[in-house]
Design a protein that fits this description.
This protein folds into six domains: 2-86 and 104-118, 3-Layer(aba) Sandwich (GIY-YIG endonuclease), CATH 3.40.1440; 125-190, Orthogonal Bundle (Arc Repressor Mutant, subunit A); 198-384, Rossmann fold (3-Layer(aba) Sandwich), CATH 3.40.50.300; 395-439 and 501-637, P-loop containing nucleotide triphosphate hydrolases (Rossmann fold); 452-494; 646-708, no CATH class. It is α/β, with parallel strands linked by helices and 715 residues long. The longest helix is centred in the last third of the chain and has 15 residues, at 625-639. The structure holds adenosine-5'-diphosphate and zinc ion. Adenosine-5'-diphosphate binds at residues 207-210, 213, 231, 233-239, 388-389, 558. The site of zinc ion has 7 residues, from loops.
């Protein structure tokens, strides 16, 4: 018997090995093997089996095989784990994504299973567990020994370490009890649980659904296609997910809930854990390797039936998958921007199709791709137009910054309207959130004499000035310099700071309201572990009046005492060189606005803009997604842009190709970036062309070439 194995070398091919007779019966597709490779041993997944009689148990990797003749083949070394890491259906998903994104199958496998699970030293944690003996030996007892023994009986046993700590004793004393036959001491697996204490919180009961929620759940239960759950912020989408999951669990099936990494907060996880307890597993980047190992195995063994995680959760080895939920389906973080460049939302739809599972895509601001799939009947629609709890949708006001009103100072960061509104909140002891999509102090440092900007030498963008540490930082490569005193181009001591970042806005706000307690949240203030949660918890506890931040504060957060949301510059995302700029702006404004008035207190939103008649801004202020989508889709159709075509980037770094153009970000990390935009009615045409190109003209070693199928943005 022969076996074809995918080894993690990104060579985009499979390797063939012989299977020793004694292993033949045990071998299965999806298993992890160790195999000889050159002078070392490598690990790889079984993609295909070829039985002696010529039948192939394939996962469809037709072009696999090393092409060597059987007599030259080496035998595999060992089966690492007889339990397959991938079901045949999961492998089908892996293969489909590899074909769709033109990424090597190994790179998809790698994305699909955590390294912490595959690496050679990965294992469950074993510790000594002490349990009282069933029939304790009749031995002479000292008072101390008797006490210790009684305590262990009372506790029903425990981990060695834990007993030593709690009973103020030592391993030596415990081992003596073992030697006397009073207790048994044996290694036992100790689960590393990322949810820890959270598992002990009180279980929540399903809420009685309102009309809109009940109708939505009905659509989901009856659907034979993916369902878009289009519900305004606060309409209670999560409760609908929870009850849809409960139904699946009742009929013995499992579920995956995908959320953008940024909204994978303890709050979110708690809502699932308090409904389904131990059945919930989480998978995300902040877990320790041990926690990830244990959670993944709990999923594979079927102990955990509900998985909550970011985009990689789409590969979770849930058995009998009944439902996949993609929350905030429009979120750009679902598109991975490194190999494999897959969109996890689309992967979820594919997984649902392969497994015969329901798929629910939830959003208050659906992506135009999904909206169009509803329009053409590929997806079903469930709509929820009202807030579920006590809250009402906030009143939105647009402030035209290009035509200053009475009281405004020219070029100010805050309009008088917004300042008045903040003051009102301070007086009433309510809270405000202010949103500015730019971190740092000022956007650029410019010379007043020669007009030069201080640019990062590695990237084609100006440095952002950070006042706190007097540095200029590049937001692309992370490089920094001490802020120059004179212009690097002409030497004039005339450098000016232009554009407003969160640090500058914070300083300006503190000047206006010296007594206000202000918290700032952006990539700079949250670089410490947990600082993200610390800031949000402090704000929730009412330790600050104003939370000022970048898009980090925009989504998924629920603060009952926030009654004002201000957007300092709604245009900053509108002017990006990206065909999705209007869509992103609409989404951002709608999400930010959704933060106000979540509870009993009514909310107000103030949007400052220099271009208040831009369709995306007008529609966002009205909360009218349908109008925005209609308008934007007609533009996209006219220009033959997605979702009316599949747009993919063939990225070529370090070389000028005729008819190629520099990327919008021309230089990054020291690489010159050129790109060719390819548009075609189908992705497979593009991928075929790409493979053909690579085969014909493999790029020299000093160059890097990549293709980004369905490129999310053009930089
Ligand atoms: P979304 O995810 O759509 O933004 P959430 O699921 O966060 O909305 O729900 C918003 C609020 O409404 C939450 O506080 C939630 O507990 C509450 N809620 C949801 N469904 C109901 C219901 N059927 N009855 C009462 N309150 C509800
Ligand atoms: Zn740089």
């Amino acid at each position: 018997m022969l076996v074809r194995v995918a080894i993690d070398l990104a060579l985009d091919r499979l390797f063939t090995y012989e299977v020793p007779k004694e292993l033949e019966k045990k071998l299965a597709v999806g298993q992890l093997l160790s195999v000889p490779f050159g002078h070392r041993t490598a690990r790889g997944f079984v993609m295909e089996l070829e039985r002696g009689n010529g039948t192939t148990e394939t996962t469809g990797m037709g072009d696999g095989g090393s092409g060597k003749r059987p007599y030259e083949l080496k035998p595999i070394s060992a089966i690492v784990d007889e339990e397959p890491f991938f079901s045949t259906r999961l492998l089908e998903l892996v293969r489909a994504l590899s074909a769709y994104t033109a990424a090597p199958v190994e790179s998809v496998l790698k994305a699909a299973v955590p390294a912490a699970v595959v690496r050679p030293n990965a294992r469950a944690k074993e510790l000594y567990f002490i349990s009282p003996a069933l029939a304790p030996a009749p031995v002479p007892m000292t008072a101390r020994r008797q006490w210790l023994y009684d305590q262990i009986v009372r506790l029903g046993g425990g981990w060695m370490q834990q007993l030593c700590r709690e009973l103020k004793t030592t391993p030596v004393s415990l081992k003596e009890l073992g030697r006397l036959g009073l207790v048994t001491i044996a290694p036992r697996q100790k689960r590393r649980d990322p949810l820890g204490n959270m598992r002990r919180i009180l279980p929540t009961k399903p809420l009685p659904l309102n009309g809109g929620q009940a109708a939505a759940l009905g659509v989901i239960s009856a659907a034979t296609k993916p369902v878009l759950l289009f519900g305004v912020t606060g309409s209670g989408k999560t409760e609908v997910y929870l009850q849809a999951i409960a139904k699946e669990l009742e009929s013995g099936r499992g579920a995956i809930v995908m959320v953008p990494e940024i909204s994978l907060t303890p709050q979110t996880v708690r809502r699932f854990a308090s409904r389904f307890g131990d059945k919930v597993a989480v998978l995300h980047s902040a877990l320790s390797d041990g926690e990830r190992y244990d959670e993944w195995h709990r999923i594979r063994s079927g102990a955990a039936r509900v998985v909550v995680g970011p985009r990689s959760a789409v590969f979770a080895p849930v058995r009998d998958l009944g439902l996949v939920v993609v929350d905030e389906e429009h979120d750009p973080s679902y598109k991975q921007d490194d190999n494999p460049r897959y969109n996890a939302r689309d992967a979820a739809v594919l997984r649902g199709k392969i497994e015969g599972a329901r798929v629910v895509l939830g959003s208050a601001t659906p992506s135009l791709e999904t909206w169009r799939n509803v329009a053409v009947g590929k997806y079903d629609l469930a709509e929820m137009k009202c807030r579920a709890g006590a809250g009402t949708l906030p009143a939105v006001r647009l402030v035209d910054m290009s035509a200053p009103q009475r009281g405004d100072s020219p070029g100010a960061i805050f309009s008088q309207d917004l300042l008045d509104a903040v003051k009102l909140r301070l007086d009433r002891h309510e809270q405000a959130m202010l949103f500015l999509n730019r971190r740092g102090y000022s956007r650029s440092v410019t010379c007043a004499v020669c007009g030069a900007t201080v640019d990062c030498p590695e990237c084609s963008l100006p440095y952002t000035y950070h006042r706190a540490d007097a540095c200029c930082r590049c937001h692309i490569c992370g490089g920094w310099i001490l802020t120059p005193k004179v212009c690097p181009a002409c030497g004039a001591p005339a450098l000016q700071y232009k554009g407003v970042g969160t640090q500058r806005a914070e300083a300006a706000l503190a000047k206006c309201f010296p007594n206000a307690r202000i918290l700032r949240m952006d990539a700079d203030s949250t670089s410490r572990k947990n600082s993200h949660d610390d800031i949000l918890s402090a704000f929730r506890r009412g330790e600050a009046d104003v939370l000022l931040g970048t898009q980090m504060i925009a989504k998924g957060l629920d603060f009952p005492n926030v009654t004002l949301v201000g957007v300092l510059n709604a245009d900053s995302s509108l002017n990006m060189p990206d065909f999705r700029a209007a869509e992103r702006t609409f989404q951002l404004l709608a999400q930010v606005s959704g933060r106000a008035g979540r509870a009993e207190l009514p909310g107000e939103v103030i949007i400052q803009s220099y271009d208040p008649s831009a369709p995306a801004i007008v529609a966002a202020a009205r909360g009218d997604f349908a109008a925005f989508a209609k308008d934007e889709l007609s533009v996209r159709e006219e220009c033959f842009f997605p979702p009316f075509c599949h747009k993919s980037l063939m990225k070529v770094k370090g070389l000028t190709v005729s008819e190629a153009v520099p990327s919008a970000l021309e230089k990054a990390d020291g690489w010159y970036r050129w790109q060719v935009v390819v548009r075609a009615p189908s992705v497979s045409t593009i991928v075929k062309a790409w493979r053909w190109l690579l085969a014909k003209r493999p790029p020299p070693a000093a160059l890097r070439a990549a293709i980004d199928v369905d490129a999310f943005c053009l930089v």
